[in-house]
């Protein structure tokens, strides 16, 4: 038996709760893992609440991230005792995920835990930090360097936003953070933001083209915010889009693309090839120090997951939530 959060849907409705589970709830996979830490992401909170159709199979253990130790691996890719981590691949959506003390997964979904990171530190980074690094990699591959100009980060108090600020600042970029919680300015400045702007300057309908300002953008918000970010991006600049906190609509025009030649780069973290995952995690292990991880992350136990999920959806959570699955 082991502890885990289980989501169920039947004639009694949709519900999520911490339960005693056995191996029969686990799904097909060639690798059995003792989970040490997981995370609570926005997608996990949506799954737990049932407010969005994230979960595609029931019953299901949520959790799109996990780090732990291999118990057994039939494929031979890993050996017992190896430390591994996982992000995405439909885990926590169509396959039982990391918010439990045990997981059974495909070895092709796993990568080795970078030696410079502990399991807890890796989950302090989680999908949010990994996605932020993919966004930064997109900006750099497009040719955006620190001398190119200001970089806008939207949704700055969230996990992706927090890590995007920290990574960009450590790489020498001038970062402007857009947030709806300007009272958190000290937190964002400590991460490396040089300026804080109110998200409402971006979240309402705007003009097709605005004054050029941003050399690049990391956007986790979508909707009008993404459209306005595109409208004020400099000629030839790039906008990396990875989220939909405001909405999944794109109520804009083609003007920034055909008149200023900007690039809108979609960042998918779920099905990203292993090569890109390994590069991103290797870079994260080098650029993020222990103090940054402690500043961004808050640790909770499994018993706190469901309540914290609602707080996350209500915009009451700053940074990252790390879940110690062996703490109840």
Structural topology:
Layout: E1 2-10, E2 13-21, E3 31-39, H1 42-49, E4 65-73, E5 83-87, E6 102-105, E7 111-112, H2 119-141, E8 151-153, H3 159-170, E9 175-179, H4 185-191, E10 195-198, H5 200-203, E11 214-219, H6 223-231, E12 233-241, H7 255-259, E13 263-266, H8 274-287, H9 290-296, E14 297-301, H10 305-313, E15 320-324
Parallel strand pairs: 8-9, 8-11, 9-10, 11-12, 12-13, 14-15
Antiparallel strand pairs: 1-2, 3-4, 3-6, 3-15, 4-5, 5-7
Helix pairs in contact: 1-10, 2-3, 2-8
Describe the structure.
This protein is α/β, with parallel strands linked by helices and about 325 residues long. The chain contains 10 helices and 15 strands. It has 2 domains: about 1-115 and about 295-325, Quinone Oxidoreductase, Chain A, domain 1, CATH 3.90.180; about 125-265, Rossmann fold (3-Layer(aba) Sandwich), CATH 3.40.50. Strands 3, 4, 5, 6, 7, 14 and 15 form a 7-stranded mixed β-sheet that branches. Strands 10-9-8-11-12-13 form a 6-stranded parallel β-sheet, sandwiched between helices. Helix 1 crosses helix 10 (about 305-315), helix 2 packs across helix 3 and helix 2 (about 120-140) packs across helix 8 (about 275-285). The longest helix is centred in the middle third of the chain and has 23 residues, at about 120-140.
